[in-house]
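Thread: Newbie trying to understand structure tokens

Hi all, I'm a second-year student working on a class project, and my supervisor (Dr. K.) asked me to get a predicted structure for one chain before our next meeting. I've only ever worked with sequences, so writing a 3D structure as a token string is new to me. If someone could post the tokens and maybe explain what I'm looking at, I'd be very grateful. Here's the chain:
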Amino acid sequence: MAIHSAPRSPLLDEALGPGGPIIVFDRVHLAFDDKVILRDISFTLKTGHTKVFLGASGAGKSTILRLILGLLKPDAGQIFVNGERVDNMPEDKLLSVRGDLGMVFQEGALFDSLTVRENVGYKLFEESRTPIAQVDARVKEVLGFVDLLEFINRMPSELSGGQRRRVAIARAMAAKPRILLYDEPTTGLDPITALTVDEEIIKLRDLEGVSSIVVTHQLRDAFFIAEHTAVRTGPELRFEKASPQKADEAEFIMLKDGAINFEGNASELRTEAHTNPYIDAFLS
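---
Reply by user tm_fold:
Sure, no problem. This is what the structure looks like when written as tokens:
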């Protein structure tokens, strides 16, 4: 008797095909004892696009980032990063995958005993054989990108909260990763300072082609990142309202109790609030 295997998920065909998305979650499930953290999560992130995760505290947002980094393993489902399956990958091989991932933590997580230069170049100084002169050149390049070159020899304690977040972004991009993961990057910042962090996220996406996942509960920042674009004309850099086509490249996922409650663009999220009490309460 012939044995018929279950049809392969279309997401897997997309992940493994040429030009496939840079991150794929296919029916991912995770529980700690009897508590379900993520329930049947499937999504893709296209190269150069942004995915914004929203949801109440404990909905599973930050867990998504830990799974991408391989810090957690799902109970079921498959995860692909750059076409490589990482959910069952041994730790020694995960190191190469993580080399293409930059992480910006909620509080910046800078080393207090190191200068800005040493913080930004830490991964290159410690984990590569790149000559010091080349590391220093890259550190100056990324600090210039986030407009903090003049602070290169300062200590983190001498920086404002917004400056520390931007240094954290510079550190995450120093090794030229193609994917950046942001975990509540503007939490605790005033609106004006948060805007400078939002602009760095947009710059990296639109000028450097970085793919990004942003975990946040700050709606103002989420919508700004999704609906604005960075444009450089010669030496001039400006931020302007994105075209509808460009804005659609940033997609929102709303998590509720570990499951996807909504997925779509900013306009669709606002419309969904009229009929979805959970989203309406979140957006209010």
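A couple of things are worth pointing out once you decode it. Residues 232 and 238 are 6 Å apart (CA to CA). DSSP finds twelve helices and twelve strands in the chain. Feel free to ask follow-ups in this thread.
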